[in-house]
Design brief:
This protein is an alpha+beta fold and 482 residues long. It has twelve helices and 28 strands. Helix content is 21%, strand content 30%.
Length: 482
Amino acid sequence: MVKVGNESVLQNSPESSNEGSIFSKHRIKLWYGGRCYDSDQEEKLLVVSHCDTDLDQTFSLSPGGRLLHQRSKKCVVRLAPDSSTLGLGVCDDAIKFIFKDPGFLQSIAENGRVLCASQTSDTESSKANLYSCLGAPISLTGCDDTASRVDIIEESSFLEERKHFINVPFALNETCDFKACGLNDPAQPVQMIRPIYSSRCTKVYDCVTVVTKTARRPYLVMRLAQSIRDIKGYDLRIISYDDGPNDYPEEVWDKLRQFPDITYIVGDEEDMGISRGRNLALELVKTKYFLLVDDDHIFNAKSNLEKMVDILDTTDATLVGGKFKGFPKFAGALKFGHYHNRQEFAVFSGYCERELPQFPHCEQCDTTSNIFLARTQPIRDIKGWSEELKIAEHADFFVKMKAYGLKVVYCDDIEVINEQESPQERSMSYQKLRYDSGRKHRMFRLMNSRYNVNGLFWCGSHKVLENGDLQCLTTKHKIGYC
């Protein structure tokens, strides 16, 4: 077993190379799109389906290579003797499969050709659009690095990773009638804590640790540390995780030593992902609060940590965020619903539920930018960021916050500078990890699959309807899937 995020994923081992790995009651999840193998309603065809936490969608692979669909107690067979389409039938007719790294269910044809279980389509859609289409049949085809690749996920691990979604109450109405709609209700109002129960932080550097994930950019982490020193007149502890596996020359470490409060850790993986790097850093935090920033942030005179600490010291908010200087307001509401004729997830930037009268310029929102101060233990308790999402992790993190009833505050008088590198300055590794379009679209698809929606979009302007729903007037960015 190896870990992908918090999910246990089965891999082939050398001692079982003749038969492949054997598994029992595991989900078969599409590597590219995150959706699951399951039967159709008649339990006849094997198709691409939403991963339903309320439904047994598990399979077992026997030592003899039979792939059993647990709910129906049927095995995976050819739909007809001369058909490549896969269905469910009596186990005497089962196809013999083996599981091969990095994630292929293979079968050997009579002519010796190696075939793979793959998602297919009978439409003329482009290859990029066919992946993970709901209801798409699973067939035996030539092995494709994307259409054929799957993760085999242990059921208990799968359910643990989606625990925040399992417990969402159904809150259906005429405009939203699927499970994720239960996440639409706003959090309870932020409450002041009675002074007798509050523990005040008198020195920011005693109760705040900076957490940042970098990708082969130690000089940006040092620039961040220098800006804190210049603006605040003191150093903050910084924990930064970097992608590996290569170490840096001694001259780089000499420069890092000029900032003794930086804990700089180079990982073993070339692409550990933003989420895993943050979670690893969070494990090392010893202060009651942590400040989440990106490595290309710079403090200025409006980076008001004292106000952020004051809000967490005196209210029951879990997180308080700021903004990027010169950027439009990103903080807003997160909503699920029927938009663009399909189930979608929407970010309504600019809409926040209520103001905080005790703190001018501050509002209670669902989400804020990647500059925030948060309580350390509550974020650990919800397992931090979902490690399946190496990038495009932001919205999922705040949906999880909302699912657990954790309260978010945004203050528009708190800011940092987001000073990115020029394209010419970016390292090849960062360019590959951050700007590869295929990788980015895969992560957005995985995020969609976590809540069983078919698209997401960012709303640029909106209006509030009489029933309290939000109507998007202009869409800034839209990503839709079949």
